[in-house]
Amino acid sequence: MRCPKCYIKLQAYYAFCPSCGEQIGPDRGRPWKVFGVAAVVAAVVMMALMFYHQSGFQAVRDTQHPVVSPPEKSPRLQVLIPDTEKSGKDFTVSVGRVVIEDIAGNRVAEMTAAVTDSGWLAVPAKLGIGGYNWYFLYSGGEMLEIIGGRIGDHDAVGIWQLRDMNRFSGPRLIAGNPSEPLRWISVVSELTLDLPHAGIISEQQNFFVVSLPSSIREPGVFIQGGAVVGWSFGHLLDHGYIWRGPDEESLVYELSVSDYYRTTFENSREERFIQAYAVKDAQPLDKLRLFADGFRRSARLPEQETPPHLSAAAVLARMHGLVSRLARDGRADDLLSVLDSRVLSGAGDVDLLRAVFSNVSRVEGISRAVDIIEEVLRNPGNFLDIEETQIRIFLTEMYGRWLNMLTESGDYAGGLAIYDRAARNAGDDPNLKLMGARMALAFDDWRTAENIMGSQWFPLDMSDQVKQIQDRIRLLKTGSDKIAVRFAPDAGRIGVQAVLNQRLRQGFIVDTGASMVTIPVAAAKQLGLYDASAPKHRVVTAGGVVFAPSVMIGSIGIGGWTETRIEAFVMDLPEYPGIGLLGMNYLNRFKMEVNADDGILTLAPR
User: Fold this and answer.
1) 195 backbone dihedrals φ, ψ, rounded to 5°
2) Integer CA distances (angstroms), 479 to 371, 397, 438, 473, 559, in order
3) Residue 46 confidence (pLDDT) above 70
4) Which domains does the chain carry?
5) Which terminal Cβ of the chain has fewer Cβ within 10 Å, N or C?
6) Which stretch of DSSP H or E encloses residue 80?
7) Is residue 506 classed as helix, strand or coil in its secondary structure?
8) pLDDT digit string (tens) for 84-111?
């Protein structure tokens, strides 16, 4: 049997649907025969969760400004609590529907609920998370605001109150005693059970958590002294909950609905996703920025309780579509303004990272794209360990591509600098080692090449390449009493790659017209030698007179040969940004011979 309204499967003996409250059976006009306010709440919980999880996406997707309206059938139902104390008076409690909306006005939960004498109703804690506005919708369309309640930090259920607390009359809520006899009454069937006591499993701030006999598998209420004292919630919660807070006469709310939202959901990932869905007419980049901003925030909902449209997978699918659209529209250069390393780490999606890398490398170059991957690896965020390994493999491939580009362009000095960076960040990869050794040998720097080759085990299929490099190293070692610098015969200048203080690789131009070595400001800072307040010297350059401080460089290594204690001016050369000059205070330490036809500069120590 299924409910004629919401179509969920029902037990044959159910008198009312636990999801939507629809009356079942031939006597559908008869009022509910239930005992207590909180009794209906259990049914409410089940319906609300189903609505939130199953219908939340539809509401957000299709409804820009939803209006709280009564359901198609909203009869005035009442819960009857008979006179168990022989006082000659029965009680009835008014029943309606709790409607919960998110910050964008989308209805995310709806549940049937009953109200006690002072306007109190019970709502499961997880049902209210993400609810920005709460209402109680009564028969005939009357809508009352739910203003605040009481809920412990670890309580599974909260008690909430209407702003108009005197609107209804009915039974009271009082503190229960699990050690005393209780009557349990189902809110979905005619079942009742008298219990001599309820075994306490644990205590929450406002509740005793009690064990339930196997015969209680439905939502229901516990009654003591003609008042409601607790609830069971069927399959939703395994145990019963007996109220241990103040009696209704002394009960006041401690937390407003807005405060509950602020402490449980505000500034969360899910809130930002809701806001992003609600903006219907945004441009693709603005829409992407809204979704991306969610991944800069922490998730508040457990994965199993997150509505499908607010899940990371659903949002990432939309972001992939927006990235593809921006790329097609020629807007790939805008991606980094939105998808920075923090967003990518928060998203934890390898495919999104690859998409960003592909677009950024095409627009801004491979250097900027590699920067992004390294930033992500420094703080991998939500990437799994296996995904982090995949990213490192991907980074190694990108370094290989980068080094190939530099080799093809003949930029061996730049290639060595990139190899050093790859060795630090991409680990020991045999292909990168071979490329680094070749870069060093382009400067006849056999010592660096030998160090690179000696730190790596190479597979058998690379034996021929390894032998070629080792033969070249042995040949250079036989003439290691000289420095041989190769250069393009028609280049117009001689470039050389040096290592400063045995740790910083720096490019130089051999300049016999310069009396002193010069290094860029950035290099001096990296070496820890820069002092802006140091005395400055008058230096005559081709562009005029400048003033620059001097520093003492501990060592300069070129081609496997190291010279120590060389003074240098710290200055940037406008015509050669990032490059230094190898002046005569270094060159005078050698006998210099230039073979312009073959492109070889030989420096023999004096």
Assistant:
1) -115, 135
2) 40, 36, 18, 10, 11
3) no
4) 37-263 (2.40.10.10), 279-425 (no CATH), 483-605 (2.40.70.10)
5) C
6) strand 77-81
7) strand
8) 555 556 667 677 788 999 888 888 888 7
